[in-house]
Amino acid sequence: MNKSMIYALTLALVSAIFIPTYAEAHDDNATLPHIGGNSEFAQSKWAPVRHSFDLHIPKNSKAVSQLIIQVPDVIRISDKNRIDVVDTQGQKIDTNISVNGKIIVLTFLNTVAPNTKLEIDINNVKRPIGGNGSVYQMSAKFFGSDVVLPVGFARFRVNG
Protein backbone atom coordinates (compact mmCIF):
# COMPACT_ATOMS: atom_id res chain seq x y z
CA MET A 1 0.00 0.00 0.00
CA ASN A 2 1.21 3.47 -0.66
CA LYS A 3 1.69 6.00 2.15
CA SER A 4 -1.27 8.24 1.25
CA MET A 5 -3.65 5.30 1.41
CA ILE A 6 -2.26 4.28 4.82
CA TYR A 7 -2.66 7.87 6.10
CA ALA A 8 -6.23 8.07 4.78
CA LEU A 9 -7.14 4.75 6.39
CA THR A 10 -5.55 5.78 9.70
CA LEU A 11 -7.41 9.10 9.67
CA ALA A 12 -10.72 7.34 8.95
CA LEU A 13 -10.21 4.87 11.81
CA VAL A 14 -9.19 7.57 14.30
CA SER A 15 -12.19 9.70 13.28
CA ALA A 16 -14.58 6.77 13.69
CA ILE A 17 -13.27 6.04 17.18
CA PHE A 18 -13.56 9.61 18.43
CA ILE A 19 -16.83 10.67 16.81
CA PRO A 20 -19.35 10.74 19.65
CA THR A 21 -23.06 10.03 19.55
CA TYR A 22 -24.61 13.11 18.00
CA ALA A 23 -27.82 15.07 18.48
CA GLU A 24 -28.86 18.50 17.35
CA ALA A 25 -28.59 21.30 19.88
CA HIS A 26 -30.75 24.42 19.93
CA ASP A 27 -31.48 27.43 22.10
CA ASP A 28 -34.18 26.92 24.77
CA ASN A 29 -35.68 30.27 23.68
CA ALA A 30 -36.57 28.75 20.32
CA THR A 31 -40.14 28.32 19.12
CA LEU A 32 -39.85 24.68 18.02
CA PRO A 33 -39.16 21.56 20.07
CA HIS A 34 -35.79 19.95 19.50
CA ILE A 35 -33.76 16.91 20.41
CA GLY A 36 -31.41 18.06 23.16
CA GLY A 37 -29.35 14.91 23.45
CA ASN A 38 -29.29 11.19 22.98
CA SER A 39 -27.51 8.25 24.51
CA GLU A 40 -27.13 4.52 24.24
CA PHE A 41 -27.02 2.20 27.24
CA ALA A 42 -25.62 -1.31 27.64
CA GLN A 43 -22.95 -0.56 25.09
CA SER A 44 -22.20 -4.14 24.19
CA LYS A 45 -21.59 -5.51 20.75
CA TRP A 46 -23.94 -8.42 21.32
CA ALA A 47 -26.71 -7.40 23.74
CA PRO A 48 -29.80 -5.36 22.90
CA VAL A 49 -29.42 -1.71 23.91
CA ARG A 50 -31.58 1.22 24.97
CA HIS A 51 -31.67 4.31 22.76
CA SER A 52 -32.69 7.41 24.73
CA PHE A 53 -33.62 10.85 23.40
CA ASP A 54 -34.22 14.11 25.25
CA LEU A 55 -37.03 16.17 23.73
CA HIS A 56 -37.01 19.81 24.79
CA ILE A 57 -40.16 21.83 24.26
CA PRO A 58 -39.01 25.43 24.73
CA LYS A 59 -41.04 28.07 26.52
CA ASN A 60 -41.91 29.85 23.24
CA SER A 61 -43.24 26.69 21.57
CA LYS A 62 -46.80 25.52 21.17
CA ALA A 63 -47.93 22.46 23.17
CA VAL A 64 -46.98 19.14 21.53
CA SER A 65 -49.66 16.52 20.94
CA GLN A 66 -47.68 13.89 19.01
CA LEU A 67 -44.10 12.82 18.31
CA ILE A 68 -43.33 10.78 15.19
CA ILE A 69 -40.06 8.82 15.12
CA GLN A 70 -38.67 7.41 11.87
CA VAL A 71 -36.59 4.38 12.86
CA PRO A 72 -33.44 3.72 10.80
CA ASP A 73 -33.48 0.77 8.41
CA VAL A 74 -30.62 -0.93 10.28
CA ILE A 75 -32.51 -0.98 13.60
CA ARG A 76 -35.12 -3.54 14.60
CA ILE A 77 -37.69 -2.56 17.23
CA SER A 78 -38.91 -5.60 19.14
CA ASP A 79 -42.28 -4.37 20.45
CA LYS A 80 -44.11 -1.18 21.29
CA ASN A 81 -44.41 -2.04 24.99
CA ARG A 82 -40.70 -1.39 25.38
CA ILE A 83 -40.98 2.37 24.73
CA ASP A 84 -41.09 4.64 27.79
CA VAL A 85 -41.76 8.38 28.02
CA VAL A 86 -40.91 10.21 31.26
CA ASP A 87 -40.46 13.81 32.37
CA THR A 88 -37.41 15.23 34.14
CA GLN A 89 -38.69 13.98 37.51
CA GLY A 90 -38.98 10.43 36.16
CA GLN A 91 -42.78 10.53 36.08
CA LYS A 92 -44.32 8.45 33.31
CA ILE A 93 -46.16 10.49 30.66
CA ASP A 94 -49.49 9.00 29.52
CA THR A 95 -48.85 8.11 25.91
CA ASN A 96 -50.53 5.98 23.27
CA ILE A 97 -47.79 4.22 21.33
CA SER A 98 -48.19 2.75 17.89
CA VAL A 99 -45.52 1.04 15.81
CA ASN A 100 -46.09 0.64 12.09
CA GLY A 101 -43.03 -0.77 10.37
CA LYS A 102 -40.26 1.79 10.84
CA ILE A 103 -42.55 4.53 12.22
CA ILE A 104 -43.22 4.99 15.95
CA VAL A 105 -46.03 7.42 16.80
CA LEU A 106 -46.24 8.71 20.36
CA THR A 107 -49.61 10.39 20.94
CA PHE A 108 -49.70 12.23 24.26
CA LEU A 109 -53.02 11.79 26.11
CA ASN A 110 -52.48 15.25 27.60
CA THR A 111 -50.60 17.68 25.38
CA VAL A 112 -47.08 18.38 26.54
CA ALA A 113 -46.82 22.01 27.59
CA PRO A 114 -44.08 24.43 26.59
CA ASN A 115 -41.02 24.62 28.84
CA THR A 116 -41.01 20.82 29.29
CA LYS A 117 -38.30 18.24 28.81
CA LEU A 118 -39.08 14.60 28.11
CA GLU A 119 -36.94 11.49 27.88
CA ILE A 120 -38.00 8.88 25.34
CA ASP A 121 -36.45 5.46 25.88
CA ILE A 122 -36.61 2.79 23.20
CA ASN A 123 -35.61 -0.38 25.02
CA ASN A 124 -34.43 -3.72 23.70
CA VAL A 125 -33.09 -2.28 20.44
CA LYS A 126 -31.56 -5.00 18.31
CA ARG A 127 -28.86 -3.48 16.17
CA PRO A 128 -26.47 -4.81 13.60
CA ILE A 129 -22.74 -5.07 14.07
CA GLY A 130 -20.85 -2.83 11.68
CA GLY A 131 -22.32 -0.44 9.17
CA ASN A 132 -22.50 3.33 9.14
CA GLY A 133 -24.53 3.89 12.28
CA SER A 134 -28.15 4.76 12.67
CA VAL A 135 -30.06 8.02 12.43
CA TYR A 136 -33.50 8.51 13.94
CA GLN A 137 -35.55 11.36 12.44
CA MET A 138 -38.21 13.00 14.59
CA SER A 139 -41.19 15.21 13.84
CA ALA A 140 -43.94 16.69 16.00
CA LYS A 141 -47.57 17.71 15.76
CA PHE A 142 -48.83 20.57 17.85
CA PHE A 143 -52.08 20.99 19.73
CA GLY A 144 -54.83 22.17 17.37
CA SER A 145 -52.84 21.53 14.17
CA ASP A 146 -52.39 18.66 11.73
CA VAL A 147 -49.11 20.05 10.42
CA VAL A 148 -46.11 17.79 11.06
CA LEU A 149 -42.82 19.65 11.54
CA PRO A 150 -39.34 18.12 11.80
CA VAL A 151 -37.82 18.64 15.25
CA GLY A 152 -34.48 16.91 14.90
CA PHE A 153 -32.50 13.77 14.57
CA ALA A 154 -30.22 11.61 16.65
CA ARG A 155 -27.32 9.53 15.41
CA PHE A 156 -25.85 6.45 17.05
CA ARG A 157 -22.50 5.07 16.03
CA VAL A 158 -22.39 1.34 15.40
CA ASN A 159 -19.68 -0.43 17.37
CA GLY A 160 -18.12 -3.27 15.59
UniProtKB/TrEMBL annotation:
Keywords: Signal. Residues 1-25 form the signal peptide. Pfam families: DUF2808 (PF10989). This is DUF2808 domain-containing protein. The lineage of its organism: Bacteria, Bacillati, Cyanobacteriota, Cyanophyceae, Nostocales. InterPro entries: DUF2808. The keyword Signal applies.
